[in-house]
Amino acid sequence: MSSLNRRGFLQGAAALVLMPVFSACEKKLSDGHEKIHWDRDMCARCKMVVSERNHAAQVTNPKTGQNYKFDDIGCVILWFKEENIQWKDTAKIWITDVKTSKWIDARTAHYDNLHNTPMAYGFSANEKIESIKEGSEVIDFNEMVKRVEKRAR
User: Fold this and answer.
1) Global pTM value
2) What share of the chain in percent tops pLDDT 70?
C-alpha cells in the first residue's frame, strides 16, 4: 500500500471512529430541544452568534427532526415567513425563560416587552405569568407573532 493510499485509509478510519462522538453533541435533550453551544452556534436567520441565555430560541422540524437555533424569537417568526416554512404550525418551538434560562414551549409562554433582546424585537418569554412585573402587558404567542410581523413590514 502506498503512503498516499495508507493516509487516505487512516483518515477514513479516523472519520468513522470520530463520527459518533461528534454526532452525539447534537442529540436532543430529554425534553426535545438540542444543547446550545453558546457563543458558537449561529442564528439560522440573521447569522449572529447565539449568546444571550435568556432570549435564545430553537425550532425543530417535526417530520425530519432537524433543529434550527435563533438568538431572538423575532428571528424565528420572520424566518418562518421569509423561508416560507410550510411546517411552521406543527414545528416545536423552544425559548428560554427570561429569568431562569430554562427551555420552555414558546407557544404556551407568556411574553412581556420589558427587556432588550438581541435583535431588538423586545419580546421576552416567561414560563409563569406571575413572573411578569405587575401592571405590565402580558402577550400570548399569537399576539407576539402579529406584532413581530407588523413591525417587519
Assistant:
1) 0.80
2) 80
